[in-house]
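Known limitations

Structure tokens in this collection are predictions and should be treated as such. Users comparing against experimental data should check residue numbering before alignment. To illustrate the layout, the record for Peptidase S54 rhomboid domain-containing protein is reproduced below. The input appears on top and the generated tokens appear beneath it.
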Amino acid sequence: MSGASQVITGLTLTNVAVWGVSRIPAPATQQWWLSLAHTPGYPWFKNRQLFTHMFGHLGVFHLGLNMMGLLNFGPSLAQSRLFNGSGSHFLAFYLSAGIVSSLGAHFSALVFRSHRFTPGMGASGAILGVFSAWAMTHENAYVRVFPFPKVFAAREMLEWEAAFEVLGLLGLWKALRLPINFGHASHLGGLGVGVAYVTYGGNVQIWTSSRRAAFRSMKALSIL
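Generated tokens:
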């Protein structure tokens, strides 16, 4: 098992484990689980929730859908020219996409007053970051989305997903009284991270330079 495969397996097992613990019907457990959520409008919001929210899920379907996305798109993306099989690089990207997506939700809540007091949980932002980077690096690939009979080209699917989230953020689905209550701002944040990382050569412009700076700092501090 490669480093990237170990990271993807570890992320999957961590999410499953957190969900399993959240099912324990004890007050302390439920309080801990709720503390993972990102709720920007609450006075007890903590910065760490920008990170912890991506490991909590609201149900088995929510968890299963996100982990299916990670297991479907993650391995192929990790082995692409963008990551070259590096587990640490893929993990840094995944976590960064999750945090930035949460910042998108935070911005939307404070500026547009959207979902201000709704606890936000789930790895969707990070997963959509993985998906958008995969779509940008696998333009000749195709995606089938259940239950639609049509097979979408990777880039086409990315465009449809972005349009869906933008319309949701603008309130169209709510105006049409459709039962769609997703974290559209968070999803757009994740999509944007993946697109930007590929478009602007994040593997060279961000990852390589960041690693060099980190190693220089550790050497200066005699850590290495």
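For this record: The mean pLDDT is 87. The radius of gyration is 18 Å. Please report discrepancies through the issue tracker.
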